[in-house]
Amino acid sequence: MTKLGSKSIDITTEKKTYHFPLDRYYFTQEPGHIWLKLDGENLNVGFDDFGQSQGPILHIRTRPIGKAFSQGKAFGTVETNKFIGQLRFPVSGSIVEANSKVFDDPQLINNAPYNQWIVKIRPTNLDEDLKSEYIISIGDRDRLEKYIVSELVKYEDPPI
Amino acid sequence: MTKSKHEWDLIILKENDSLNTQLVWHAAALARSRGIQPRDLIIIDWPTDPIVVCGFHQVIERVVDIDYCRKNNIPISRRACGGGAVLLDSNQLFYNIIAHIDSTLLPRNINKFFEKTLHPVAQTYRHFGINAEYKPVNDILVNNRKISGNGAGLLEDAQVLVGNFILDFPRKEMAQILKVPSEKFRDKVIKSLEAGISSFKDELGFIPQRDSIIAEYIKQIETAFDISLIETQLEPGTLELMEELRETYLTDEWLFQVKARGDQLTSKVKIHGSSHVVEGMYKSKGGLITVICEFNGSVLSDILISGDFWILPDTILPKFERFLVNYNLAEGDLSGRISTFLEENECETPGTSSSDLAQAIQNAYSKISNT
């Protein structure tokens, strides 16, 4: 079941209700589930509610600060249940700061995924990168809903 | 007309150099992601000699007795999968399942991925009369003892499961490679490994022929995945990737890349140029305590604790560090505060007292308070 609020989308499955605020971009390139939100000239980047629900996050690592990478390259890894997953740069740029709070206690992301950014990225080609097929724009509820529903089906936790 | 089964490649390398057993699946996963390996594949091999392999996010110097490994010529490597440090040796049989992320045969849900990929392992043990069962998330147990170790990950666009059949387990050797505070503690580790890990030899009194285990595992995989495994060789491009990785995987940059929060804290020096980030050290009987502290006036605004002293449980350090943050050194009685934390969290710090830990922090603070 999808509940469309004015500021978010909530999608319910047998397991839980997934929450997606519409005030930010989402990056979908496999394995996806990255949110990004403008913060001055930087972008705050985090893991969405679907991403965090794959299990308790035990460790996070990211690339070093300062080195530039292109959109889609891995910026870090997360470990859940002995599984190492990837986090991808949603736009080209470099990490300017890593959130030490989530490195100390990664489960803060499990508790409140949208309150905890993982890294701040200084974009180098933002306007072009935001046109990528893998970016869902702020407020694009139709694309966001389609994306999440297809992911839930793929991960065998379909909406009810 | 009957639908033809998916075909996967089967690479049976048999006996393999210990480092090669790790390089090969890393390389094959990257090769599968990049299209060099055209089909999903399973690699089966075992190491000629022992090798210590740590989990991707582990701080190696905190968990492995590096000196012991060097003295005994046991290489140390790091895998791109989760979990803890393990000693791998010739009495284990490895399987590596590698599939492109677009493969519809392997679930994307982590729990279901492990369930599907580990079912054939449990069934193989059962074929030999061992009552092994899959237990979520990633264990194969017999009478509550683990009889197979498994980790998984995503390397670029390839999903990987790595695991082993344990033919016989080297408990004493495993306890030797782990960093422990005392020999008495090492005995505890051996007992815990005896109680917690089993093997073909423990369960049957003998080790079946490797070829028969491999043959049964192949049969179980083909049934569970509904595929045909076609035995072949690795692509030349994959072998080239192995050689590239070889140059990386034994370097300090790869092995010691995880420095707890060192990178994050050190980076603060760059970002907040006005903050005071200083290092303090103190040598206790239990070992050297090293702290990197960020001070805002007399308030400890961040701290990273490392060194070669021992603290149990070994996962407590991040919590301990968080506990210390915002402590005002002008208040005094840092030692008492640390003592309370250690007691409340039932920590053991053999040879290191709360006042030793406090002294390391005071030594850091004195560097800015004296300027």
Write the layout of secondary structure elements.
The complex is a heterodimer of chains A (160) and B (371).
Chain A: E1 2-4, E2 8-12, E3 17-21, E4 25-27, E5 34-39, E6 42-47, H1 49-52, E7 57-62, E8 68-69, E9 74-80, E10 83-88, E11 93-98, H2 100-104, H3 107-111, E12 119-123, H4 126-129, E13 135-136, H5 141-154
Antiparallel strand pairs in A: 1-2, 2-3, 4-5, 4-13, 5-6, 6-12, 7-9, 8-11, 9-10, 11-12
Chain B: E1 6-16, H1 18-33, E2 41-47, E3 51-54, H2 60-63, H3 66-71, E4 76-78, E5 86-88, E6 92-100, H4 110-127, E7 133-135, E8 139-142, E9 145-148, E10 150-155, E11 158-166, H5 171-177, H6 183-196, H7 200-204, H8 210-225, E12 227-231, H9 236-249, H10 252-255, H11 262-271, E13 276-284, E14 287-296, E15 299-307, H12 317-324, E16 327-328, H13 334-344, H14 354-369
Parallel strand pairs in B: 1-2, 1-12, 3-4
Antiparallel strand pairs in B: 2-6, 3-5, 6-11, 7-8, 8-9, 10-11, 13-14, 14-15, 15-16
Describe this structure in words.
The complex is a heterodimer of chains A (160) and B (371). Chain A has one domain: OB fold (Dihydrolipoamide Acetyltransferase, E2P) (Beta Barrel), CATH 2.40.50.100. In chain A, 20% of the residues lie in helices and 39% in strands. Chain A is built from five helices and 13 strands. In chain A, the strands form three sheets. Chain A has a seven-stranded antiparallel sheet with strand order 8-11-12-6-5-4-13. Chain A has a three-stranded antiparallel sheet with strand order 1-2-3, covered by helices on one side. The longest helix of chain A is centred in the C-terminal third of the chain and has 14 residues, at 141-154. Chain A starts with a strand and ends in a 6-residue tail after the last helix. The relative contact order of chain A is 0.23. Chain B has two domains: 6-257, BirA Bifunctional Protein, domain 2 (2-Layer Sandwich); 262-369, Enolase-like, domain 1 (2-Layer Sandwich), CATH 3.30.390. In chain B, helix 1 crosses helix 9 and helix 13 runs antiparallel to helix 14 (354-369). The longest helix of chain B is centred in the N-terminal third of the chain and has 18 residues, at 110-127. The N and C termini of chain B lie far apart (86 Å). Strand 10 of chain A pairs parallel with strand 10 of chain B, so a sheet runs across the interface.
